[in-house]
Amino acid sequence: MGELRVNASELVDTYGREHRDLRVSLTDRCSLRCTYCMPADFSDWIANGSLLTTEELLTVIGVAVENGITQVRLTGGEPLLRRDIAHVIAGINALPNPPRISLTTNALRLAEVAQDLKDAGLQRVNVSLDTLSAERFKEMTHRDRFHDVIEGIKAAQEAGLTPVKVNSVLLKGINDHEAIPLLKHALANDWNLRFIEQMPLDAGDLWARPIMVTANDIQQELEREFTLTPVPTRGSAPAEEFYVDGGPATVGIIASVTRPFCSACDRLRLTADGQFRNCLFARDETDVRALMRSDLTDAQKREGIREILQTVTKAKLPGHGINDPNFVKPERPMSAIGG
Ligand code: SF4
Q: Tens digit of pLDDT for each residue in 8-35?
């Protein structure tokens, strides 16, 4: 992959935020049932016929890259459930001026495909793991697959999909006592650990502010054992990073609810069924699938995608509004939006 040529993004909202990061959900289906994400018996999936085909995906991503997107994060549901994911990655990597490509996964299939994805052009992975206990993993995800995740992380490291970022959600009275052990394990195994505040986006409507583990809670807990020093540079990154005991190792906290970072947001989203969203918490979304399946010429479709991207970006609100009294969570659950 040649040197990344960074032109000014064409995707600038009315607050001057340049959008360079496109989060692409490849499917809403998942191989786990994390309690804070979806009910164990959840089955309200997007119809297969509504999912963008690989060709449609690559066309839409191609236009986004032409307009300033320099990073593509593949998400889900669980993106490794998409059988042609290596083909999708290779297609993105073959674009003129290819973006950086990363993946957010539960790692159940990672040990099997890590090298293939690396060879296809994937650069790094974010793995979701909330506990170091196989028993608690089973309780929190309704699947007995803890060891597959650990093997997946190892395989990613061996394949060079690094740094491996590990995302952990802490739940009060469930796994919040594991903050220190998780960080110790991450330091010992070269994981880049980030704790994520639970967000009001679950399909089961379980989120409640009083039971949330906040960034302050997490930081205080870690500071019982470690010295945390803020990393001065952050940019548009969601994670607030801290040097651990003077560094160079760091730990991150992604505090969407209590320490919002929307003012520097550079992210746009494409759902698996072809809807553009300008924010994780957007209440509106704009369809691109109908355009892709219309009788227009390819050139007309590409122009249409560019116009939709512009419109969606210009309509972006200053922030998520979670802390506003009249906040209403989006209808679409996190599992159908992607991390
Ligand atoms: S909540 Fe929305 S605006 Fe805020 S950082 Fe996330 S995606 Fe960006």
A: 678 999 999 999 999 999 999 999 999 9
Q: How far apart are CA 262 and CA 187, in angstroms?
A: 29
Tokens (6 digits) for 170 = 């802490």
Burial (CB count within 10 angstroms: exposed 0-12, middle 13-18, buried 19+), residue 263: exposed
First to last CA, the chain: 26
Q: How far is the CA of 45 from the centre of ligand 1 (A)?
A: 24
Query: Which residues surround ligand 1 with Cβ inside 6 Å?
Result: 256, 261-262, 265, 267, 279-281, 319-320
C-alpha triplet 307, 310, 312: angle, nearest 5°: 105
Question: Within a 10 A sphere around the Cβ of 205, how many other Cβ atoms?
Answer: 10
CA 172, 175, 177, 178 dihedral sign is negative
Candidates 245, 257, 190; CA nearest to 217 is 257
What SS3 class is residue 101?
strand
pLDDT of residue 202: 86
**Across 217-235, average pLDDT:** 95
Alpha carbons within 13 angstroms on the beta-carbon side of residue 123 total 11
pLDDT value of residue 10: 84
Task: Map residue 236 onto helix, strand or coil.
Answer: coil
Indicate whether this model's pTM tops 0.85.
Answer: yes
Distances (CA, A) of 212 to 174, 176, 223, 323: 11, 10, 19, 14
Q: Which atom of ligand 1 is least distant from the CA of 316?
A: 3
SS3 at position 148? helix
Q: Which of 281, 312, 337 to mutate to test the pocket of ligand 1 (most atoms within 8 A of CB)?
A: 281
- Domains of the chain are 21-337 (3.20.20.70)
Question: Tens digit of pLDDT for each residue in 113-160?
Answer: 999 999 999 999 999 999 999 999 999 999 999 999 999 999 999 999
Crossing angle between the packed helical segments 298-314 and 54-66, to the nearest 10 degrees: 60
The 10 Å Cβ neighbour count of residue 35 is 19
